Amino acid sequence: MTSKHLKSFLLFTIVLLLLIPTMVTNAEENQKLQGKTHSKKQMQLTTYNTSQSFARFMFDSGLEFTYPDAVRGVYVTGHSAGGSRFEKLINLIDNSELNTMVIDIKDDHGNLTYKPDKDSPYYDIAQNYIKDPKKMLKKLEEKGIYPIARIVVFKDSVLANKRPELSFKENGKVWSNGKEDSFVSPFKKEVWEYNLAIAKMAVKLGFQEIQFDYVRFPEGFEKRDDELEYTLGDYKDSDLNNVKKRVQAVTDFVSYAKGELKDFGVDVSVDIFGYAATVEETPGIGQNFSKISSNVDVISSMIYPSHWTPYFGIDFPDKEPYKLVDEYSKLENQVLSKLDTPPRSRPWIQDFEAPWLYSGATKQYGVKEVEAQIRALNENGINEFLLWNAGNSYTEGVDYTPLN
């Protein structure tokens, strides 16, 4: 061995000796991390791939939740989550087969329902409904209640009035519908990014799923298309007709959202009109049931009997909750069966009355009507559901697993 080779060999040996302690330490730390992750996240490791599991660890909120046998949940407003009704809802779940809360994080007006740090770009749109979201989620963890964050996307009066160029305008002013609600445009990718940043904030708080609602254009948009002023953004030069452009924009948002949240290890769900499953695509609002379903983990059709006109051969669906849900479930199963990777079905069902449908006595929704809807779902192999009541006042004494 020459002197030159000997010096190289000695240098290599010294470097190797210096690296060995670090390599051993890293191996030991990795072993500890894997053991810790396995012991605490075993259920999640069976669900998510390795990259997702480590991503979840990176954004660990310090809270631990296990996905239920089947999600059976209730809708909770920011007011309820931060007020006295919260304890009533906890007790309802404690004393029933319910196990999940879908909680407003960005509500129907466009407000955040809790106050983030003052340096947050969302501080000025936030209401202090949920005074301590971490404390709230800690309570849900203690009770074993699965938390889902609801984020209303394109119905957003706050953003529309703050940034009119992102909205739809009429005679130069921000347009609003008959309920004084304004929308921002699904064509604007800045709106996508705005909502995904809020979704990521919710994940970091500890929410296990992000549920996007109002993923659509305003109702009846096909009748207002020529009247309202708006820009098409990246869809300006598309050869698609206006209906197809709307469908493409909505579908692209859902795909974008799924991609943005992939590394956070959370499920992505979308609320969708029930009737969207009955047509190829909705002409005004831009929802294509199959295309949206192909890009989410969970699809939540809003199938309240009160919201259907005569359909499936049922003259007055609000009076026949079992039959309506049964017929819808059969149709949805057919549509989803044609997809390569169908999502879980988790419909929204009705736990409220619809007096606007009646000139006389209103059909009451109680134990019998709620159980009828759940039974219809279960008989068609759909075991997950969410209860909607805008005031969060839910029927007591319901058997939420009627086939057991």
Automatic annotation (TrEMBL):
Keywords: Signal. Residues 1-27 form the signal peptide. Residues 73-394 form the DUF4015 domain. The keyword Cytoplasm does not apply. Gene3D superfamilies: Glycosidases (3.20.20.80). It holds the Pfam family DUF4015. SUPFAM superfamilies: (Trans)glycosidases. This is DUF4015 domain-containing protein. It comes from Paraliobacillus ryukyuensis.
